[in-house]
Design a protein that fits this description.
- This protein has 373 residues and is of the alpha+beta class.
- It has 2 domains: 274 residues, no CATH class; 91 residues, no CATH class.
- The chain has 8 helices and 25 strands.
- The mean pLDDT is 94.
């Protein structure tokens, strides 16, 4: 496998050393997507490559985080093959879309599926559930929900054409010589009393302990409630099924409904689950990123490898100018020559660190590493 990191701001710098790449995975700022034809820009540098990418709340490039760019990795596989499929987001059909995308990718030698989805109009839990149930257990499923600003205003996915809203894309990579691994950790800590989810529907939470969820959440946020939903990025919820505290997942609020006093999430919040508020320090988030890299670090044979990082926009908002700390923590763990790319998302897709079951996460650092024999 050959690979090349790239980053475009207003023009390309020096020429490419991999102009015959067959695949480009990219992440672009919404400002760039609105003002430029991203697909054409990439095609000028990599004319033979298929493209899959999405909007970003910040682009991860090598050891840092950049803004207002198109960043990513170009790939040329030695023996592996790949296929890209897509679908239009359709409210209430996310599970079935996941099943259909997976069915289009199925093949005996399928090793890895990487999914990029609209992050505002898709129930990520349902999408991942459909994909997971249709894919064999030995296929790694990772990806994320397309990102944007902390205010949850825009989300685009591009597949060989300019990125658009309401799109879902999936990349399947095949071949016995391909190797892939993943890690997903957060670093957030729970606080306050546990609450039970007593009324919810899909990704909409109406009541905690029989009280309106929005009222209770505003009580905890105090003055910061005026900045909802953006301020909710700093205080996600951990939720878990009865008796399964080690299998908790994190949920971030992407919207509020004042009329119904409800909270809207990117993934399911099932009735009967328990919930606790979470918070974190810079050091805790950096340590979570480091632990994720430790899980994903498998390449020990000196082969050229690529790491795709999908981190949550909430982590970036909290860490501010220190956000590069979590990228540097990852780089310190992975093999020195690993090429690192990625983006800040509205949700992360990866196997759960405890159960191994693929789920939609929020507020995690999720890492996928790939290489060929």
């Amino acid at each position: 496998m050959k690979s090349e990191l790239f980053s475009w701001h207003t023009e390309w710098g020096r020429g490419s050393d991999l102009s015959d790449a067959s695949l480009v995975i990219y992440f672009a700022a919404p400002t760039v997507i609105r003002g430029h034809n991203v697909s054409d820009i990439l095609r000028k540098r990599y004319p033979l490559a298929r493209q899959i990418g999405c909007s970003s709340g910040g682009e991860i490039h090598d050891a840092g985080v950049i803004e207002d760019s198109i960043s990513g990795v170009a790939l040329s596989f030695d023996r592996a093959e790949f296929k890209i499929v897509s679908a239009s987001a359709n409210s209430g059909e996310d599970y079935h879309i996941g099943v259909e995308l997976a069915s289009q990718l199925l093949r005996d030698d399928l090793k890895w599926v990487f999914v990029l989805s609209d992050g505002l109009n898709v129930n990520g839990s349902d999408l991942v559930r459909g994909l997971s149930e249709a894919l064999p257990n030995n296929v790694l499923l990772t990806g994320g929900l397309a990102g944007g600003s902390p205010g949850f205003g825009e989300s685009f996915v591009g597949l060989d054409e300019p990125p658009q809203a309401l799109r879902i894309g999936a990349l399947g990579v095949y071949g016995s010589g391909l190797h892939c691994s993943s890690g997903s950790m957060g670093g957030w800590q729970v606080f306050g009393p546990p609450r039970q989810i007593t009324r919810a529907e899909g990704n909409i939470l109406y009541e905690l302990d029989g009280a309106p969820a929005l009222d209770l959440y505003k009580h905890y946020l105090g003055a910061e409630a005026a900045e909802l939903p953006t301020s909710a990025l700093l205080y996600p919820l951990a939720i878990w099924a009865p008796g399964q505290t080690k299998q908790d997942v994190v949920r971030t609020i992407v919207g509020v409904d004042e009329a119904s006093k409800s909270l809207i999430f990117t993934g399911d919040v099932p009735v009967g689950y328990s919930a606790k508020l979470m918070s974190a320090s810079f050091a805790q988030l950096a340590r979570g990123a480091e632990q994720s890299a430790e899980q994903a670090r498998v390449n020990k044979n000196g082969k050229e490898s690529v790491a795709i990082l999908v981190s949550c926009i909430g982590r970036k908002l909290l860490m501010g100018q220190m956000v590069a700390d979590e990228i540097e923590a990852v780089k310190d763990v992975l093999p020195q020559a690993t090429k690192i790319t990625g983006f800040y998302s509205y949700g992360e897709i990866a196997p759960h660190g405890y159960t191994g079951n693929c789920q939609l996460h929020n507020q995690t650092m999720t890492i996928t590493t790939i290489w060929e024999d």
